[in-house]
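pinned: reference chain
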Amino acid sequence: MQSSAAEDRATDIATSIAVAMRQMGVLGLPRNYEIFYEALSGSNHELSLELVSLGKRPTQNELDKIGQKFFTHHHGHGIVETARETIARGLEDIASIIRSERCHMEKYGKVLNETTSGLASRENLSTDILQRIAGVMSVATNSTIDRSLKAANTLSDKSAELETVKSSLEEYKKLADTDPLTHIWNRRAFDKRMARIYNDKAGVLFHALILADIDRFKDVNDRFGHPVGDRILQIVAEIMRTSVREGAFVARTGGEEFALIVEGTSEAVTFEMADRIRDAIQNAPFGNLQTGESYGPVTISMGVCMAADAEGADDLYAKADRAMYRSKLAGRNQVTKFAPGQGGKPGKDWLLYRRD
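pinned: its structure tokens
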């Protein structure tokens, strides 16, 4: 029960943030979401006061100044710059430790060689001299062992520090590529993923793009308000995410627009996947459990295009979008496959490219 309550509270905060940012005309950037989260969650009173002082239409420049003030080490470019400096410093420290250790080991090796040569060239050494030599070598060996242990501990600490920096960079990258409302990939991540499809000519044969748009979403917002609209977006995103196999790429690319990049499926299987998602959304309950008010049914229109039917990422998107538009014209709540007769540039013969 405690876990459920925490999840509900997190959802309420996320919805409040999305609504506040929308009403104030704030861009959906990760750094802006971070500022509003700190303000609305009540964890930073001073930040909250400064955000309120900006009024109802803060500029991006004003928000950036708040970010720079309150998130000096965890914000935007600061993360990258701080990480770069820490990595450079850490690598130099590691290199210095290795150089020092190598120099000390060379000196220790030289002492061993000289001692061995001296012992070999002399005969009948007294017990007293041998004991003195053994004592000196014992001190030198213990000193070398101690230095090596300290060097190993220092290297371990440096490695841990660099691992922390790596984790911070990965977390920031994830934040920058994630839609703050639905927690799936955002348009930035989608554009990068689309570009990768055509980097491997052979791989083009095994990719497909599905575009989806919620039908009459503006009517939903106008009738029930943006908080309800945002909750619907979250539910639709969750249905999409859980309806595809692991490895499929699901993104929110616009207000009520979504995209799925699938790999290793035929056109028929891709179409079936899209239609299964469409059906799941059509039959999902959208409403207020407390009041019994229904917000549905919610439906989506979808367009499918195989990567092999397009010349590149832009052409693939345009053709999938054209197919989705035909779903809208045909009455909505359906899936349409792109066909060459629907217009657009003819796709390349990627089988020829595969034989190169």
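why pinned: Residues 127-176 form the longest helix (50 residues). Residues 136 and 328 are 89 Å apart (CA to CA).
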